[in-house]
């Protein structure tokens, strides 16, 4: 009997171990990474602040302000869309500076009909040119918000909302929940609303402070994995010391597959290009890219151009392959160890990013207003370029093993696909000029000796 008991016990142990392993594997596959943390902008987020500025007989009036605290990620046209779910049976009586996309069922109201009766309203910004009596400060930009570094004055968006059928005191108000932010598509995850210290406001004469009745904040963070299934940009490389041009990786953002997916890309000389650009999908900003091996809407090319005694020079070119997009707020973030010795940059704006103290290897570049701040759609004019001049630091500078090329590049806040490191244009093991400089005096001496022996 004893061996059978031991055998049964061993079988049960093996079964339980297998069950534990199975549960572990299932748990690993059930959680997906969203990469909401950005190493180059660790504190970047969009904060939504609700300030209750007054009470009404059946609710309150609040000013909702969105702050884009992201250093280089912005919200481009067609702008942000904000949503939430009411905690009880609240309604929106009126709005200033924004509007809901649907009114909902307001049939229970007679006479004065609310602006929106939906349990889960969706709010959008008003367009530029809205009458002044429908505006408040920082509204009516079509939902466009600049990044915090590019233009902090336009990194804020606000609207006013009058809420009814709600609490009328700090203790009876119920905070909205299930906040969603689209900018303009998915990508942002919002936390729960948290009551914070009431906001203080300074009057126009700067002699008196007023205070909100109640304030709560909602924080939203960005994940590129949630925003799109495939990358949106890629990087190619070249240098003066090597004839090799490293192209963007093949199928970096997708593969040409017109057989099963007609219209996935368009050739530049296609006679039906105009109709394809204005065809289905334009309203949703679906990209229509030029047919390439990488199929990316945007390509960034980094070229190590010249080498001087104390400096070296780089040319950066950004090319738009998307026939349906004009990038009006474009920016580039580049990580390279020599940015601590950047001497001059031409035709781009520049800002050093220091995500960590004592580390100055990341820079943000963007266009000069009214000159090259618009990256037009694919075509002959669909590119912008600049040159950067770096001072050499003799303790770290080298052209060997791909050091001259960036470690990471972001375009409009999205990480671009880099070529594999083993494909980088490396410095040749020996230079022809160095060989000539050594042989030349040797040959001269040899010829001189022959001349002396001949006439001795």
Give a quick precis of the structure.
With 456 residues, the protein is of the alpha+beta class. Helix content is 13%, strand content 32%.
Strand and helix map with partners:
Elements: H1 2-30, E1 46-56, E2 59-68, E3 81-85, E4 91-96, E5 98-100, E6 122-125, E7 156-164, E8 177-182, E9 188-190, E10 194-196, E11 200-202, E12 209-211, E13 214-222, H2 224-227, E14 233-239, E15 242-246, E16 265-266, H3 273-277, E17 289-290, E18 298-307, E19 311-320, E20 331-335, E21 342-345, E22 348-353, E23 362-367, E24 383-391, E25 408-411, E26 414-415, H4 432-454
Parallel strand pairs: 14-18, 16-17
Antiparallel strand pairs: 1-2, 1-13, 2-7, 3-6, 3-8, 4-7, 5-6, 9-13, 10-13, 11-12, 14-15, 18-19, 19-24, 20-23, 20-25, 21-24, 22-23, 25-26
Structure explained in plain terms:
- With 456 residues, this protein is α+β, with helices and mostly antiparallel strands.
- It has two domains: 45-226, Immunoglobulin-like, CATH 2.60.40.290; 230-255 and 288-423, Immunoglobulin-like, CATH 2.60.40.
- Helix content is 13%, strand content 32%.
- It contains four helices and 26 strands.
- The longest helix has 29 residues, at 2-30.
- The N and C termini lie far apart (113 Å).
- Residues 1-36 form the signal peptide.
- Residues 232-425 form the COBRA C-terminal domain.
- InterPro entries: COB_C, COBRA_pln.
- Keywords: Glycoprotein, GPI-anchor, Lipoprotein, Membrane, Signal, Transmembrane, Transmembrane helix.
- It is found in: Cell membrane.
């Amino acid at each position: 009997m004893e061996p059978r008991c031991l055998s049964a016990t061993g079988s049960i142990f093996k079964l339980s171990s297998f069950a534990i392993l199975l549960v572990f594997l299932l748990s690993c596959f059930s959680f997906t990474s969203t990469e909401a943390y950005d190493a180059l902008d660790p504190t970047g987020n969009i904060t939504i602040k609700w300030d209750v500025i007054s009470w009404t007989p059946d609710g309150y009036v609040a000013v909702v302000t969105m702050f884009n605290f992201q250093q280089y990620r912005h919200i481009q046209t067609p702008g942000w869309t904000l949503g939430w779910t009411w905690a009880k049976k609240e309604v929106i009586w009126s709005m200033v500076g924004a509007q809901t996309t649907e009114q909902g069922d307001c049939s229970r109201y007679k006479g004065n009909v609310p602006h929106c009766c939906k349990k889960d309203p969706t709010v959008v910004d008003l367009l530029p040119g809205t009458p002044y009596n429908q505006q408040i400060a920082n509204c009516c930009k079509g939902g466009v918000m600049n990044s915090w570094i590019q233009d902090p004055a336009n990194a804020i968006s606000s609207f006013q909302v009058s809420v009814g059928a709600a609490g009328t005191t700090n203790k009876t108000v119920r905070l909205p929940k299930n906040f969603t932010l689209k900018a303009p598509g998915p990508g942002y995850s919002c936390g729960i609303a948290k009551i914070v210290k009431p906001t203080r406001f300074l009057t126009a004469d700067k002699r008196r402070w007023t205070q909100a009745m109640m304030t709560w904040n909602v924080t939203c963070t960005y994940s590129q994995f949630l925003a799109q299934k495939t990358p949106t940009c890629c990087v190619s490389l070249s240098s003066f010391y090597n004839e090799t041009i490293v192209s963007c990786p093949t199928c970096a953002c997708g593969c040409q597959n017109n057989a099963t997916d007609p219209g996935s890309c368009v050739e530049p000389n296609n006679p039906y290009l105009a109709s394809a650009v204005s065809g289905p999908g334009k309203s949703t900003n679906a990209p229509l890219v030029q047919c390439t091996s990488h199929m990316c809407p945007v390509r960034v090319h980094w070229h190590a151009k010249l080498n001087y005694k104390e400096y070296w020079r780089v040319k950066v070119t950004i090319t738009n392959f998307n026939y349906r997009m004009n990038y009006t707020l474009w920016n580039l973030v580049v990580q390279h160890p020599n940015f601590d010795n950047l001497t001059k940059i031409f035709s781009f704006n520049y800002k050093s990013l220091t995500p960590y103290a004592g580390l100055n290897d990341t820079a943000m570049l963007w266009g000069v207003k009214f000159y090259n701040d618009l990256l037009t759609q694919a075509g002959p004019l669909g590119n912008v370029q600049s040159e950067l001049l770096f001072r050499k630091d003799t303790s770290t500078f080298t052209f060997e093993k791909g050091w001259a090329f960036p470690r990471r590049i972001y375009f409009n806040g999205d990480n671009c696909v880099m070529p594999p490191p083993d494909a980088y244009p490396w410095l040749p093991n020996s230079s022809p000029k160095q060989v000539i400089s050594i042989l030349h005096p040797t040959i001269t001496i040899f010829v001189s000796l022959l001349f002396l022996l001949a006439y001795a």
